[in-house]
Specification:
By secondary structure, the protein is of the alpha/beta class. Helix content is about 35%, strand content about 20%. The chain has 3 domains: about 5-115, 3-Layer(aba) Sandwich (Rossmann fold); about 140-365, Alpha-Beta Horseshoe (pyruvate-formate lyase- activating enzyme), CATH 3.80.30.20; about 375-425, Nucleic acid-binding proteins (OB fold (Dihydrolipoamide Acetyltransferase, E2P), Beta Barrel). The chain binds S-adenosyl-L-homocysteine, iron/sulfur cluster and FE3-S4 cluster.
């Protein structure tokens, strides 16, 4: 079970590879499981609560099957460390995000009834272990860096994922080739701030150069990346996408807040104007690119005026979609100590206003796509299992009727209806 960001989804692929090597098969049914590993997130309190709730729910399966092993991995474990066992004593092992390679050893011990708690040390890369079990042979992730040194004042990630380290280009190229050999057609390069790739490496390489090199390999037709940070996002990256063949036209550039005052308190290191200029450059050079963002509402000290500036930015820049979050206090971060915390009701009221405005914009943008034809990589069935689902190069989800033989293939689809999150299409028969 995986919670959290794509980094965790990718880590889970690696965990699954180890688990498989230990002789396990996978099941959808909890009651059939002899091993359950929950890969956790702690970016907001809501995630934490949900995870502890889930782990407590699993307790009853231990009574039904005394041999059941329950393990926890990931960021929440790194944050709570030993204290975690007080909350969920029935857990057999708990390790941080940098100890995944110990899993085979830990499972062996757990089978003998020996509990294990991680050492929570920071580690350098181990290239080999980054090759995961690719669940869908056509879509996967490649982590190009680890950790984060930005210390945005609200964020727990640098404390649980450690310092920023870029991976050597040779290792990335090796993994890239491995993914291509596995049949991957859509890969996402992952990092907390991919735009600062290359810092600290012996070789003089930056993110734009990395993308150009991977594009030139011409092995994987869709290369995506996330997440970008506005302070490091630059024209060279936009030009690489413009001139590249396989680099996707979707840019996720979180702005977090539309007021310079709040951005400063967030330690984001850019101004609203600088952000706007970067977006304008993207729009000028890549007119068809989709732009998405993350926004935090109710950061300590956010006045009605600050919040209105966030609304204004959303209205002016017209993002294809936005992930909106209510600010969540994370103990240990700087913002947790700020005294001017915003009451929950105010945060809730503000986020509702923001979501309503963004939803209207998303629908308006998607409606304009009706009648257009897109090439879609089909990834599987939609939630209701009634239709197929895939994505455009710009990362828009398209659902349409078709049979399973199309999964993993590229098909042309005409958009018949644009909704808020998804586009409804029909396959074009050529
Ligand atoms: N490194 C990425 C992703 C970080 S986590 C980035 O810098 O964008 C994903 C999103 O969670 C962030 O962009 C932010 O909008 C949100 N987030 C992080 N900490 C938060 C907190 N304490 N409360 C609410 N949202 C938070
Ligand atoms: Fe958190 Fe900021 Fe790092 Fe993103 S860049 S992970 S928001 S500290
Ligand atoms: Fe969550 Fe860790 Fe990702 S805290 S958002 S899983 S880096």
């Amino acid at each position: 079970m995986t919670y959290g960001c794509q980094m965790n989804v990718h880590d889970s692929e690696i965990i699954k590879k180890y688990v498989k090597e230990c002789g396990y098969d996978f099941t959808e049914k909890i009651e059939n499981a002899s091993l359950i590993i929950i890969n956790t997130c702690c970016v907001r309190e809501s995630a934490e609560k949900r995870i502890y709730g889930r782990v407590n729910f699993l307790k009853k399966f231990k009574y039904l099957n005394p041999y059941l092993i329950i393990g926890m991995a990931g960021c929440l474990v790194q944050k709570d460390k030993k204290a975690l066992f007080k909350k969920v004593p029935h857990v057999d092992f708990a390790i941080g995000p940098q100890e995944i390679s110990k899993i085979p050893e830990i499972i062996k011990e757990a089978r003998k009834g020996i509990k294990y708690i991680g050492d929570f040390k920071e580690r350098e890369f181990i290239g080999e272990s980054e090759k995961g079990l690719i669940e869908h042979p056509y879509q996967s992730w490649l982590s190009i860096m680890k950790g984060c040194d930005n210390y945005c004042s609200y964020c727990i990630v640098p404390y649980v994922r450690g310092h920023e380290i870029s991976k050597d280009y040779n290792i990335i190229e090796d993994e890239f080739k491995y993914l291509a050999q596995c049949g991957v057609k859509d890969v996402t390069l992952l990092g907390q701030n991919v735009n600062s790739y290359g810092k600290g490496l012996e070789e003089n390489i930056n993110f734009a150069e990395l993308m150009i090199r991977l594009d030139k390999q011409d092995l994987i037709p869709r290369i995506r990346f996330m997440t970008s940070h506005p302070k490091d996002f630059n024209e060279a990256i936009v030009n690489a996408i413009k001139n590249g063949k396989n680099l996707c036209d979707h840019i996720h550039l979180p702005f977090q807040a539309g007021s310079d005052n709040i951005l400063k308190k967030m330690n984001r290191k850019y101004t609203v104007n600088e952000y706007i200029k970067k977006i304008e450059f993207v729009r000028q050079e890549l007119p068809d690119a989709a732009l998405t963002t993350d926004i935090i509402v109710g950061f300590p000290g956010e006045t009605e005026e600050d919040f209105n500036q966030t609304i204004k930015l959303v209205q002016d820049l017209r993002f294809d979609s936005a992930h909106t979050f209510i600010y969540s206090i994370r103990t240990g971060t700087k913002a947790a100590e700020f005294e001017d915390q915003i009451p929950e009701e105010v945060k809730k009221e503000r986020i509702k206003r923001l979501i309503d405005i963004q939803n209207d914009i998303s629908i308006e943008i998607n409606k304009k796509l009706e009648g257009k034809i897109y090439n879609i990589l089909v990834e599987g069935r939609d939630k209701n299992k009634t239709r197929l689902q895939g994505r455009t190069t710009s990362n828009k989800i398209v659902v349409f009727k078709g049979d399973d033989s199309l999964i993993g293939k590229f098909v042309d689809v005409k958009i018949i209806e644009g909704l808020h999150w998804t586009l409804i299409g029909e396959k074009i028969n050529v």
